[in-house]
């Protein structure tokens, strides 16, 4: 439930990198890559009397409902529709979120799960509720949760500031009194103040892509294929992997003094993401991206300029090329290069979702400033619970000051 406890509106992204959307017919639902559409937004409503259940309301003011209609005759999957609440449908519109790592499964009253189908039509882009009977379909019931609107009750001693994007990842955990009843609304909150002496405020002078990284200590980067940028164990190469929970998928963000629009990304091995001059394959335009130590001769090659593209970011080298996640057959599969997308079909290959997994915050005596960083595929959660084993709902903590004021605080998600 920590995915939804303070969320007003969310987006749900399937294992295929597509979003759950409500169709214009106000009845059916499906998957779509257009996550910016209002049809991909679902309002979260808590179920009275049962804190472990939620309702999800579409832009058509109808609820996500696990119907009893078979999707195809002879198949186990049943339809998921939009429906109005009523005595006959109350149980059908209730969903129980179950945490699975950085993702969530949504279970129906009948014990089945919201499932995003792939394969050929009519299954392609369809959404059903079913049980994953095969290992190959276990991921089909896992969803990433992007929180795009949260609301916080007014508190004179507490100010919360989202970034200019509407997706957020985390709250600070220190120097707070109990805020279990806090709610925050995007439309009611001003821009973000400075959060540490070495990180500037939400500066308009920066390239708009910098808002993804301004307050981030560490991030994960997710490609158009739903895979994460990973530092290989050989401490040299990088690649894509679906294992986003690995420490090798975490990249420390370093802001560059005097260069407000550039960043460096440091791997778990203390090496920097580097755009080399080595061709990935002879005769091809793409060049290798590696992990490397910082030297005076290569400072430019470890610097990346974030450029915002909707909910995603492009990372540009000093030569004007972009960090690119390749698909297709080996040796291209899962490889990373830097290149210019010359064809329309490869434009998405340089787009990356940014998941903030570590932030830094500083506190003052009269007010505490919280900065929430954006996520694109926000598989990130809003955490206000201890590190005890997950029991299905968070353990709310009463935070009391244990540090001197103006001491930077760091939280790892």
UniProtKB/TrEMBL annotation:
PANTHER family given in the database record: ACTIN CROSS-LINKING PROTEIN (DUF569) (PTHR31205)
Biological classification of the source: Eukaryota, Viridiplantae, Streptophyta, Embryophyta, Tracheophyta
Residues covered by the DUF569 domain: 1-143, 210-352
Pfam families recorded: DUF569 (PF04601)
Record's protein name: DUF569 domain-containing protein
């Amino acid at each position: 439930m920590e995915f939804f406890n303070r969320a007003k509106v969310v987006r749900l992204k399937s294992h295929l990198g597509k979003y759950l959307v409500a169709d214009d017919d106000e009845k059916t639902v499906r998957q779509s890559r257009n996550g910016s559409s209002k049809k991909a937004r679902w309002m979260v409503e808590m179920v009275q009397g049962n804190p472990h259940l939620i309702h999800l309301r579409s832009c058509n003011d109808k609820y996500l409902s696990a119907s009893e209609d078979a999707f195809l005759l002879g198949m186990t999957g049943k339809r998921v529709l939009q429906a109005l609440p009523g005595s006959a449908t109350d149980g059908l519109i209730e969903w129980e979120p179950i945490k699975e790592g950085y993702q969530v499964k949504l279970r129906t009253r009948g014990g089945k799960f919201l499932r995003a189908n792939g394969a050929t039509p009519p299954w392609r882009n369809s959404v059903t509720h079913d049980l994953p009977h095969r290992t190959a379909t276990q991921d089909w019931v896992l969803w990433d949760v992007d929180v795009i609107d949260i609301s916080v009750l007014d508190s004179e001693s507490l100010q919360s500031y989202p970034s200019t994007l509407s997706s957020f990842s985390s709250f600070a955990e220190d120097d707070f009194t109990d805020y279990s009843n806090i709610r925050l609304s995007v439309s009611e909150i001003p821009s973000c103040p400075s959060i540490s002496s070495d990180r500037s405020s939400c500066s308009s002078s920066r390239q708009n892509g910098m808002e993804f990284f301004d307050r981030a200590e560490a991030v994960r980067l997710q490609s158009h294929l739903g895979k994460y940028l990973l530092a290989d164990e050989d401490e040299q190469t990088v690649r894509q992997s679906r294992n986003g929970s690995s420490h090798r998928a975490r990249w420390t963000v370093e802001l560059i003094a005097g260069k407000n629009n550039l960043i460096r990304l440091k791997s778990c091995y203390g090496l920097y993401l580097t755009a080399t001059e080595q061709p990935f394959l002879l005769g091809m335009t793409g060049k290798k991206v590696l992990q490397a130590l910082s030297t005076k001769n290569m400072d430019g090659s470890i610097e990346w300029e974030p450029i915002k593209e909707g909910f995603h970011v492009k990372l540009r080298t000093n030569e004007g090329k972009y960090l690119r996640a390749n698909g297709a057959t080996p040796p291209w599969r899962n490889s990373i290069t830097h290149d210019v997308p010359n064809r329309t079909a490869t434009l998405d290959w340089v787009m990356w979702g940014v998941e903030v997994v570590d932030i830094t915050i500083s506190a003052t005596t009269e007010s505490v400033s919280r900065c929430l960083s954006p996520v694109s595929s926000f598989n990130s959660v809003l955490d206000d619970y201890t590190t005890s084993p997950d029991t299905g709902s968070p353990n709310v903590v009463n935070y009391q000051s244990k540090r001197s004021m103006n001491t930077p605080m760091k939280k790892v998600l």
